[in-house]
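Protocol check, entry for the methods section draft. Step 1: assemble the input record (protein sequence plus ligand SMILES). Step 2: submit for complex structure prediction. Step 3: store the structure tokens unaltered in the notebook. Ligand used here: zinc ion. Step 1 record:
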Amino acid sequence: MANIFSGLENFGLGELSGLDVYNTTNGDKKDGDKEDDKPKITEADFIFDKTHTCPVCDTEFKSKAIKTGKVKLLGADSDLRPKYQLVDSLKYDAIVCPSCGYSALNRFFNYMTAPQAKLIKEQITVNFRGIEDNGDIYTYDDAIARHKLVLVNTIVKKAKNSERAYTCLKIAWLLRGKYETLPEDTENYESVVENLKKEEDEFILNAYEGFSIAFSKEMFPMCGMDENTVTYLVADLARRCGKFDEAGRWISRVLIARDANERIKSKARDLKELIVQNKRENV
Ligand SMILES: [Zn+2]
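Step 3, stored output:
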């Protein structure tokens, strides 16, 4: 695996950068409108400081968050990545304790067992150098670094494969958001975009592998998704990895599922077409 954890040196966690996302030694746990007469709306207008209490070290701290109901959803990519108007809410999903380094996606942050807290103290806190939190917003680079910290934490605390996979997927989405919005006057624009796409592919592959394992070992709902949604997602991740036959098998499961609603079936039909088309182009 390429160095998908590059950037962690800044947090003092460079030594952990050789980690494998799914191999654990202790066995797998199953488990704006710019109208001239209006002031310009900026990303900072959507952000507030949310207070959290760390379940590992009990420190109270603030993290930037999106004001609920403020951001308009415009649509989604084929892998369910939501796209918003004006601000990419995805950047604000990683909560990082500035005191001990414990980090998690918002939906998982408060779930913590005593053995997991011990592992985080022993493997994260001892090396953690803190995190800078200045500026009104999180840039894509801030967000990507914060999410990589989350991924390391999922491995250290022996999180379920689905949580690791979901974190990889979120990082892939952030990398995509970064190159989609990269200013065209960026130095070496094309090679920067190409490298970001390569890194995105690594995380998509990791997400695909993790969700595939989770599928046979874990219960649904998984990361808030029902079985048909996860099946659809795995199909698209397989397609994005160039595994068109696997993608076809996964999507067929959604198409024949009796309990799948019309919304997901319709998305599945579109994806099936895309898989067939991609396969033809790659022959
Ligand atoms: Zn803490």
